[in-house]
Write a structure and sequence with these properties.
Blueprint: E1 2-3, H1 5-10, H2 23-28, H3 31-36, H4 48-56, H5 92-95, H6 111-114, E2 147-150, H7 156-165, E3 192-195, H8 199-215, E4 217-218, E5 224-225, E6 229-230, H9 237-250, E7 267-270, E8 276-285, H10 290-294, H11 300-313, E9 320-321, H12 322-325, E10 334-340, E11 343-348, E12 361-368, H13 382-396, E13 414-421, H14 426-439, E14 454-461, E15 465-466, E16 471-472, H15 475-496, E17 508-512, E18 517-522, E19 525-530, E20 534-538, E21 546-548, E22 551-556, H16 561-565, E23 566-567, H17 570-582, H18 592-607, E24 610-611, H19 617-632, H20 639-650
Parallel strand pairs: 6-23, 9-13, 16-24
Antiparallel strand pairs: 1-10, 2-3, 4-5, 7-8, 8-22, 10-11, 11-12, 12-14, 13-14, 15-17, 17-20, 18-19, 21-22
Helix pairs in contact: 11-13, 15-18, 15-19, 15-20, 17-18, 18-19
The structure holds adenosine-5'-triphosphate.
Adenosine-5'-triphosphate binds next to β1, α9, β10, β11 and β12.
């Protein structure tokens, strides 16, 4: 789901410049005075990543975006005129003053990030790079290169080499552990790109890539059709679902009519090459209790058990009438603020001016159990919604007792979970239509629901804007937010063996605050973290994993091939990295996945988020700290380890 950016403008509750600075900081900061004299304009740090996505989407000929926007049509022939289409790509180098575009070579759109791995080209030499054109697939020297780029066009060789050599970023790859790897393809020009610093890893990656290549389908013209999927950074579920629908529609053996039984806990999609590429299921297991394994079998009795469990969590015995529980007179200052593949998000404020604050309530309305597809997806069942409810409530409970062994306010507060039934209330439909008229909705009109429809409503505390749209004062503030995020993950790791598994910048919310410090307790050790004026909150546990009450709640995405072939941002590498470290067993606990997401967040803080003041001493000091962290974060094995390191280095 994305909160519309225009809407977000109305939600601007960012503190005034310098509101969070103490008086000493203010003495050091000459900017307000200069601004008053109109000598200095407000500074906004532009995002390299974002710019590069945008630029990458536009070819030199002005061709269409190669990024898949949810509303966009996917071209009929992915393979069409591969070489003649846009092959331009932008990189941070352009922003750093390089006049030529060294990446007119169809590298991955993630070039901006990937090049951070190289230390001024020191480890790169021409022999260490290997290229093969399409005819000589993977015909390259596998030993000891720092990078291999396979299946690029021949002319890219020189320009790519020059680009990497002139790169002035600090290295981000942990050269001891060699954990980073990358296999990607762009839509217009096929290539597989590996990164590694030793021959063993390179060899492994080569083997992996050969598998990728073997899975591709030859179209008989010597070209290989690649079901490449380039997604916009951030919320990906809607785009991937739209893409899948498109594949189903255009597939010659269209089996779209084939409906899977919703009680099978699975949704089937017919993929690009005619295979099932996504088999999504949410699983709730209690391995230590045999009765729970019996629950794996879908029977009407079992269905009742799952329903009862969800209702227990709602403190209800049966679903309540939607219209009554959320009547118009209780929601006088309400508006729709976002939408996602699974439902709609409304905001009810306490003030008439509709200025949201921490007293405002966000309502996530998720239709469940119905037979009709909603927004191209099967509706979740009671069984499938239970993990999300349990995880949301238990993580929110980490804030209830400040004296408990593990304490954090960093997960979104759940005020109430309700199960309701009936047609969508008229006042919600009106709000839906206003949103649709103003911003355009991609979701189905809620009048598709009849009076037998059941919904889960999650009532959440309003937590601000997401990391992508929030404007930070400077890097000291982002660093403050980072500490909060890392500690919050650490506390949940300790309490629940928690892994978020989808912590992209749409799932971190930020709200300006006057509170000076926040408390976190990790395994009975209490830490005070200065807020620097922002409060960070983690949301959206759709892919999360946690152990609670002898149960393992997780989402088995092992066969979700689309997600693992997506590209367009470092974010999409993380899904592959998680799959590798978990050995594609999504039930197991591997806290390194939290480290992967922390490394992603740091890169966004360096190269993605918006800053107001980038010239202050505080900004450069903390910006260097972030840069240092990106060089070491992958050495840690868990958020617990990393948070201890950060807190120790605070003093
Ligand atoms: N507590 C909150 N405070 C402010 N905004 C929120 C809150 N919860 C959700 N939102 C907004 O609503 C959007 C959708 O929320 P969320 O990510 O939980 O839904 P989702 O259905 O899981 O989305 P998707 O499935 O598309 O990823 C978020 O991106 C965020 O902008």
């Amino acid at each position: 789901m994305n909160v519309n950016t225009d809407e977000s403008k109305d939600l601007d509750i960012t503190l005034e410049d310098g509101a969070w600075l103490d008086s000493f900081d203010k003495l050091l900061e000459p900017r307000p005075a200069l601004r008053e004299l109109n000598i200095l304009k407000k500074e906004v740090h532009a995002s390299f990543n974002r710019d590069s996505s945008v630029e990458n989407s536009i070819s030199s000929k002005g061709n269409e975006s190669s990024l898949l926007k949810p509303s966009q049509e996917w071209p009929n022939d992915l393979n069409e005129d591969i070489q003649s289409k846009s092959n331009s790509i932008s990189t941070p180098l352009v922003h750093r003053g390089l006049k030529v575009d060294p990446f007119k070579c169809s590298l991955s759109p993630i070039g901006a990030w990937r090049l951070l791995y190289f230390d001024k080209g020191k480890n790169i030499n021409k022999d260490g790079m290997c290229f093969a054109n399409q005819k000589k697939r993977l015909n390259c020297t596998p030993l000891t290169p720092s990078i291999q780029i396979v299946e690029c066009d021949e002319p890219v060789k020189k320009t790519a080499f020059n680009a990497i050599q002139s790169q002035d970023s600090t290295p981000a790859l942990n050269r001891q552990t060699n954990r980073f790897q990358h296999v990607t393809r762009t839509r217009n020009t096929r290539h597989v790109c590996f990164e590694s610093t030793n021959s063993k890893t390179t060899q492994n990656l080569k083997e992996k890539s050969e598998n990728v290549v073997t899975n591709e389908k030859d179209d008989g013209k010597g070209d290989v059709r690649v079901p490449s999927l380039t997604l916009q950074p951030g919320k990906w579920r809607k785009s991937i679902s739209a893409w899948r629908r498109k594949q189903v529609e255009k597939h010659p053996n269209n089996l779209a009519g084939r409906q899977s039984d919703k009680r099978n806990s699975s949704v089937e999609f017919i993929g690009f090459v005619g295979t099932i590429v996504g088999k999504r299921k949410s699983i709730f297991l209690k391995p230590e209790r045999i009765s729970e394994n019996v629950l794996r079998i879908s029977t009407p009795e079992n269905h009742e058990v799952w329903e009862r469990r969800v209702l227990d969590r709602c403190n209800q015995r049966f679903p309540l009438p939607f219209e009554e529980l959320y009547s118009a007179d209780k929601l006088t200052n309400c508006m729709k603020i976002g939408e996602g593949a699974y439902g709609e998000v409304f905001l009810n404020t306490t003030s008439k001016r509709r200025m949201p604050d921490a007293n405002s309530t966000v309502m996530k309305v998720i239709p469940i159990e119905g037979d009709i597809d909603v927004n191209g997806e099967k509706q979740k069942t009671f069984e499938q919604i239970l993990p999300e409810v349990v995880i949301s409530v238990e993580l929110a409970n980490l804030r209830t007792d400040v004296n408990s062994a593990n304490f954090t306010c960093g997960f979104v507060n759940v005020r109430k979970v309700a199960c309701v039934k009936g047609q969508y209330p008229q006042h919600f439909i009106k709000l839906w239509e206003i949103f649709d008229k103003d911003k355009g909705s991609e979701n189905d009109h809620p009048d598709i629901f009849d009076d037998s429809q059941i919904y889960i409503v999650l009532e959440l505390e309003f937590c601000g804007r997401d990391l992508e749209s929030f404007q930070f004062q400077n890097a000291e503030q982002t660093y403050g937010a980072l500490l909060q995020i890392v500690l919050t993950l650490a506390v949940a790791e300790q309490a629940f063996q928690f892994e978020h598994r989808d912590l992209h910048w749409g799932n971190i919310l930020l709200l300006s605050t006057n509170v000076k410090e926040l408390k976190f307790t990790l395994d009975k050790h209490t830490y005070s973290v200065p807020t620097k004026g922002v409060k960070a909150t983690i949301i959206d546990y759709t892919l999360s994993r946690m152990s609670f009450d002898n149960c393992c709640h997780y989402n088995d995405i092992s066969s979700d091939e689309d997600l693992f072939t997506a590209s367009g941002d470092y974010q999409f590498d993380i899904y592959r990295m998680m799959r590798d470290v978990l050995g594609n067993n999504w039930e197991s606990f591997e806290p390194r996945t939290n480290i992967f997401w922390i490394s992603y967040i740091i890169t966004k803080m360096i190269d993605g988020v918006k800053y107001k003041n980038i010239r202050s001493k505080a900004h450069s000091t903390y910006f260097s700290k972030l840069n240092n962290l990106i060089g070491i974060v992958m050495n840690f094995n868990s958020a617990i380890e990393f948070s201890k390191y950060l807190m120790d280095s605070q003093v």
